[in-house]
Amino acid sequence: MDLGIKGKRALVCAGSKGLGRGCAEALAAAGVDLVLNARGVEALEATAAVIRQAHAVQVVTIAADITTEAGRAAVLAVAGDVDILVTNAGGPPPGMWSDWDRDDFIRALDANMLTPIALMKALLPGMIAKGWGRVVNITSQSVKAPVAQLGLSNSARAGLTGYVAGTSRQVAPHGVVINNLLPGIHDTDRAVSLDTGVTQAEGITMEEARRRRMASIPARRYGSIEEFGATCAFLCSQQAGFIVGQNILLDGGATNVTM
To answer: Can you tell me the mean pLDDT for 8-33?
Structure first.
């Protein structure tokens, strides 16, 4: 399918690895030029080189921590006028309700709620002026069904979801579409981190931790960054203009909900 976005320009946050990289590669395959952000210079430049070679698109890199005010300013200065925004930041650590204090919640909110909101506020006016834009926020399946040990993530991402619900409907008349992608477990560093926590808590091997988690997923596997990226690219396409303010699960059926 021709997504109709060749020649568009996208800012992809945390795009050097994992789900962000999957999104960046899928957009590049559709002919989209990229502004690619991540904290680590080495991984960022390596990913950019691979994408340039594979898809012959322009890839501008900016190494910065997108969750900080200074980092966002640096990224936005390089990004300039973009047509597509993919927000993404690593999730906060798991734990128990009794583990977290106010500072922990502030850090989670800064990374997973306030950062994407700040990026949208900065870039939506330009999209509105052009009469076209796409925003995809990478959130979590915990928005649909909170995960007990991910209380920090549950809280921050639920706040972002509420913001998007209203904002998406305010900008839709201007041809700007905002949606959220809710990943379950994919083969990324985040999965390794969560599974490592299980191995330490229960004294089991990584292989056993993965086997148990896969058994809880109807698809009986972890997702791939390629299929996640393909979904993101579709939501950024011309064909997705009537999908507004939705929370789309990509979790292999793990979240047992009907709505």
So the answer is: 97
